[in-house]
Amino acid sequence: MCGIVGYVGRRPALPILVEGLRRLEYRGYDSAGVALVDQEGLWVAKSAGRLYVLEQQLDFTAPQTRGLGHTRWATHGAPTEANAHPQLDASGRFAVVHNGIIENDRALRKYLEQKGVIFKSETDTEVLAQLIGQLYDGNLERAVRQALHEVSGTYGIAVMCTFEPDVIIAARKGSPLIVGVGQGEHLLASDAAAILAHTTQVVYLDDGEIARITPEQLRLTTLDAIPVTKAVEEIEWTLEQIELGGYEHFMLKEINEQPEALENCLRGRIDLAEGTVHLGGLVDCARELTRARRIILTACGTAWHASLVGEYLFEEMARIPTETEYASEFRYRNPVIDDGTVLIAVSQSGETMDTLAALREGKQRGALTLGVVNVVGSTIPRETDAGVYLHVGPEIGVASTKAFSGQVAVLSLLACYLGRRKHMSAASAMQFITALSQIPRQMREILQRADEARAIAERFGEHNNWLYLGRGFNYPVALEGALKIKEIAYIHAEGLPAAEMKHGPIALITEGMPVVCIATAGVQYEKILNNISQVRGRGGSVIAVATEGDKEIRRLSDHVLYVPDTLEPLQPLLTVIPLQLIAYHAAVLRGCNVDKPRNLAKSVTVE
Ligand code: F6R
Questions:
Q1: CA dist 550 → 265, 320, 435, 543, 556 (Å)
Q2: Residue range(s) in the chain whose domain bears CATH number 3.40.50.10490
Q3: What pLDDT is stored for residue 604 in this prediction?
Q4: How far is CA 457 from CA 79, 351, 466, 470, in A?
């Protein structure tokens, strides 16, 4: 959603800020702005709409070497130039960029208005800027600290002023911030992608911390001014990973990256000789996990679909009762968490507000909490007791693809890890992880036949209603296929457990309606063939995803997309790929903005 970039150093700040904002575009935004600062004053440019609109107003030869940039996703007030950040105080000497929501902004606004402050925007951020301006008595850090004691809500903020032009004050509560450490310079960002071109050395701020950043120095304290010492960490992402690298869209790049991403995810974690799984992040809670009596997986969207695969995996392989909960529902229910409950929060970004809130709810009620997260250093892994990173690299496309397969792969590893601690024999674990280690190669085979999925998109791309059917481990994949085509091609689609179709949705099937049926080899194969016949009997066009070598399916379906054979619990890692490709090509053919679908943000950090 919103994005922050800051720079204090020796180089002209503007190109660095704008480049950083460009790298944050993928997160979604509807206005943008920059502020440069020196003793003379603040120089601010803002605009509604895309970044290129802002760029048209900028003089890239500006000499200032300090500044802030922001991309805003409107919450308080429309996406207008006035509401864009940076927000200034009445004197025009203090600039604030802010991610998050100040909850008591109305009360603060009223208080400031009574003191004669005239507001220029509808934003909660301006309230903060005005408050800091009022509280300033010669020390910016102190003014920010005092202001933050007055506000409730969430924030990642960066503040600059003309009185102390060398200084950025940054603070975090519930909204991520990272300080990049360079030679005679420091950068600030809400997402590592914004600063990766300049440094891989970073310090992650935690909630309740304030950073005072100058070109030469970074000083961290708590909100109550207690000094904090932190190690500089290395970001493992590379610049190539956040660039298109010749692909037309990030989504296509990330679909194609899945084999390599899975190799990275599995590396060092599977021990084929011993038939066992090593998950370093779980070492400290191994004993507690062995005693787990119930697992709750909680997530949103695609991560929820991956979690549902996890539920099937945990019950099948570890025989532990498992439920998958929408984080947004879980957090407001009165969930029963008893002794032996493990709550696993699954998230690509590690910042999704609902998932974070569900995690906190579970933690408060005494669950052991684990994170299955992609972004290292994000909020969820900082708040869980333990966890496993996906290591699939940055996901820039708004539609989640390689994170889904990474989540399923990690949950497969976890199921095997737990299974081995319960009743699973070394032989069956060995069979499972051998099959898992083949998945990257099998994914490559599917990707080599990507044209077949494209042909389906060409044939059916005009249809505005699709059904996706799956059973067992492939039921979550049906949900995921439907979500992908909805969110990027704006096609209405429903994913269903295939047998549910006859309880209502079958009424939707009309002549030629595309119905994607995942009909891979497995215990329910015959059952799904029956579902296919029911669809065809009503005139639907069946697009089957089937196991290589299955000739029978050709006779029963209109089109077949084959995937290599694997164990049934691992099929989602393969069957999802043709569905991602169909959605991608349908979106391109329909002229949709694949990487920035309408109304969507990459990381949903609000309710
Ligand atoms: C769909 C998609 C979303 C996310 C959901 C959770 O393609 O990307 O449904 O999966 O917003 O996001 P994370 O995984 O970051 O918690």
A1: 30, 33, 20, 14, 11
A2: 243-444, 449-607
A3: 76
A4: 35, 33, 12, 19
- Residues 587 and 593: their CA atoms lie apart, in Å, by 8
Segment 454-468 shows an average pLDDT of 97
The runs of H, that is alpha helices, within 449-567 are 450-460, 475-489, 525-537, 552-556
Q: Mean pLDDT, to the nearest integer, of 132-150? A: 97
Domain 243-444 carries which CATH code?
Answer: 3.40.50.10490
Ligand 1 atom closest to residue 484's alpha carbon, by position in its atom list? 7
Averaged pLDDT for residues 218-245: 93
Which tokens go with 13? 């700040």
What is the Cβ-side half-sphere exposure of residue 250, based on CA atoms within 13 angstroms?
25
CA distance 527 to 463: 27
Distance 35 CA to ligand 1 centre (A): 32
Closest atom, ligand 1, to C-alpha of 407: 14
How remote is the CA of residue 307 from the centroid of ligand 1, in Å?
A: 12
Q: How far is the CA of 246 from the centre of ligand 1 (A)?
A: 25
- Taking the CA of residue 418 as centre, how many other CA atoms within 13 Å lie in the half-sphere pointing to its CB? 26
Domain with CATH 3.60.20.10 in the chain: 2-235
Residue 110 known to be catalytic: no
Nearest atom within ligand 1 for CA of residue 355: 16
Query: Which one of 2, 161, 300, 416 is the catalytic residue?
Result: 2
Structure pTM?
0.90
Return the CATH number of the domain spanning residue range 2-235: 3.60.20.10
300 annotated active-site: no
| Token pair recorded at residue 245 | 């690298």
449-607 homologous superfamily: Glucose-6-phosphate isomerase like protein; domain 1 (3.40.50.10490)
